[in-house]
Amino acid sequence: MKGKDNVLLRSFGFLAATFTISPLVAFAVSAFAGAGKAGGANKALPLLLAFISPSTLSALKFSLVQATMSTVLALLVGFPGAFFVARYNFRGRRFFMALAAVPFCLPAILVILSFILYYGKSGYLTLALARLGYIPKGEGLLYSIWGLVFVHAFYNFPIVIQNVGSVWAKMPRSREEAARTLGAGRLRSFTTGTLPYLLPSILQSASLIFLFCFFSFTIVLVFGGLAGSTLEVGIYRAIRFTNDRPKALALALLQTAIALLVVGAFAHFDRKNAAISKDFGNPPPRRRPRSFSLLAIGAYSILIALFFLGPLFALTAEAFTVRSSLAGASHFGLENFSRLLTGPNPLLLKAAGSSLALSGFAALAATALGFSVAASSHYAARRGQTMKAIGFGVSMNSWIIAFPLALSPAVISAGWSALMNSSGDMLIVIGQMAIAWPFVARSLSAAFSSIDRTRNEAARTLGSSPLQAMIWVDAALIAPSVASAAAFAFSITMGDANIPLILGGGKRETLPLLLYRLTSSYRFSEACAVGIVLALFTSIAFFLKERTNETS
Amino acid sequence: MKHLEVSDLRFSQGDFSLQASFSLDRGMTGIILGPSGCGKTTLLRCMAGLEKPDTGSIMLDGNAISLLPPEKRNLGFIFQDLALFDHLSGRENIEFGLKLRKVPKVDAVASIESLAKKLKIEALLDRKPFFMSGGEKQRLAFARAIATKPALLLMDEPLSSLDAPLRRELKAYLRSTLSREGITALHVTHDVEEALELGDEIFIMNHGRIVARGAPRTIFEAPPDAWCVRFLGLGFLLPVLGIEIKGTTSIANTSFGSYAYPPHECKASKAQIDNGEAYFFVPKRAVSLQAGSMENMGSGSSIGILDAKVEDIIFQGTFQKIDLLPTPVRDAQEGAGPPTTCDHIEVEIGSAVAIAKGGRVRFSIDPAKCAIVPALVRS
């Protein structure tokens, strides 16, 4: 049995690794093949030149700078929220926690659209501030590196609230109190009794946000050359417009190398965080906020409403605003929706159908692969077979799950395209599955490890065979998590614009692509209508996931 | 003047309310004893300034500390989970409070070395808590709490998570160290044995109130109410059916018969007795037991002697606990009235006495050692 488990673990590990690495290799091979007919060192020359070209270095610098700045700002914005949800019971606490859904269920293209409508040159807030005389008319708040950082930070700060807040809420206060009884003031007792235990979750969130911002594609693409170009956008341009494969490969290798370090740090802090939280015991009670704390929570809520919810309200308002011309009169109505749903070419209906079908298949496939990887490593670990730690103290199977996070979606797409030598629906499904399965595997690994082993053992002592115990006990306990992971995968694939953009070959229009196309042609109201439909699909799936998690 | 004086401390949260007044002499160890949820930990946290009481004053060493933040109260606190700083070594944990008090480095080092030697924890100084056993962590937490020479040491069930042998060892360690160092301490526990071993004075709490206080012996010999008798496991209780005064003698009628008792040992009011809220408290030491049935005894010798069946025997090492089911009796004095029934009672006898399970025994009660107690003291 032990041997069988080992074989199972290794075969799923091999499958997952192959699935991840093969498009990368295919892409590299295609890049070399495209580097000219000369052989040997001559083939590597364009690659080497691409590495040291000024545009590569500038993209690298810009990626690192904007990702670092965005991460720091997201931490600053999210940290007070994490404190409030951890320590206080107040109206809206659950809402703050639920905001964590935004980075996962609202596609970047939708968020950028809402930010343009709110902070752009004719944005609601910009106009309001101009009217009050705070900024000159016609000057948007977004079109600089600061705008990019701002959008990234406000897109990702809920991750800090969710990750740091949930650890903080479970943390016993006794260490902070011990420091106080030993003579420390509030700040010192926080830095001694709380911060060291919170640090892994802060760094874990920071590495995740850094990764998201580092790979930022749509947000940078929409801003175009105004703010600068990231490595991911550079890869996309090199593949799509200049067909400079060596350049794309150089950028991809640089990006993956840096991302691997961050992914390693993420997995390391994730492991450390889990080890620390394991000993926390019962969570301390949360208090009702009074006077100063109530005021602080109020001020924070206003800040979030103004800067974060404002754009989303603007998006909703715009979706229902019908304009007769750009500067003309407008009224509220459903015409933006009906225009896209009726007529000989009902764009919205077609795009929704494509999105549902493609994401449905991709989510199913991602769930199957993610489940197989998580289950095989769980049962192997239960029998005492764990893979060796190979870097950052992270085991091989954790690396297999985390590695795809370090890969550029543009490279995965191009790699699959080279591998299958075609474009079309099948490729989109494979590409989207490739980006979603690590999230499924990660969430199912956590679900498996939270299963109390004694339940299975109790079933065994009551007469179940190992297989029966696995089916009647483990499968029943894990089923809600599988459903929730599938919903999560659906949310991710539904909101993804990168894969269909690169692999669809222009033949298939999904909701994010339609949104992107309408935004590019300045049909903002109709883009918002599409955005509302897309947000409905992704958020319903995400909230189903949250609900399943809660009830299980 | 007392070293610690707590006056009318009140704290409320939801349905729970705490109200306490008590004092403690310098160098004494006070034990706050009570069941889970009675407010022991809350009382300790209020004293440390970790909870904000609604009213009340706390005087420590002549200073009013109730309005001071925790860091200004000069207290030591040992938490239930010990709350050691895992990222700091044993030495850094102890040094933490000294640094904040700006003790010069040389003096701090000397003080830590000397404390470590006294508490036999030299080997722990350069290790982090993760690499220490439960007992070692306990010693380190104790050292950290007393390193700053606090005016009062507060301990919140610090031994509750330890296994029995380690707990025994640490109880002896705490007792000797507290006494040798002359530390004034308040120790919270729900373990009666721990309270007896460590306390100079015991405060028993129930539902947020201190219902009894005194030296361990006083509490054990004169519990204030039936709740304390049950909680401390001091003996058994017989409902008082009525009181008769015959000249200078007070007689309590119970289901086991009528007993003359010392009049000053009646702690229940007349109203409580009339309302059936009073009990005849029979301490374990007031019961004597003999093997053999009443039927084997000659007539006339049975007054005050009761018959019972041995339901169970639990061997406890130096003594054995006997679970008895007394035979229903008529009024022993009058020989009249309906037969009465009674519940199981538990008595303790030396482990050398040979008694068989299922057999019959005779037992008698010495009323001079008994008392009448109310069901519950309300304060």
Would you give an account of this structure?
The complex is a heterodimer of chains A (552) and B (379). Chain A is mostly helical and 552 residues long. Chain A is built from 25 helices and four strands. Chain A has a domain of 262 residues: MetI-like (MetI-like fold). In chain A, 76% of the residues lie in helices and 2% in strands. In chain A, strands 1-2 form a two-stranded antiparallel sheet. In chain A, strands 3-4 form a two-stranded antiparallel ribbon. In chain A, strand 3 and strand 4 form a beta hairpin. The model of chain A has no long low-confidence stretch (mean pLDDT 82). Chain B folds into two domains: 218 residues, Rossmann fold, CATH 3.40.50; 149 residues, RNA polymerase II/Efflux pump adaptor protein, barrel-sandwich hybrid domain (OB fold (Dihydrolipoamide Acetyltransferase, E2P)), CATH 2.40.50. Chain B has a six-stranded mixed sheet with strand order 6-7-8-3-9-10, with helices on both faces. Chain B has a five-stranded antiparallel sheet with strand order 13-12-11-14-20. In chain B, strands 15-19-16-17-18 form a five-stranded antiparallel sheet, with no helix packed on it. Chain B is globular.
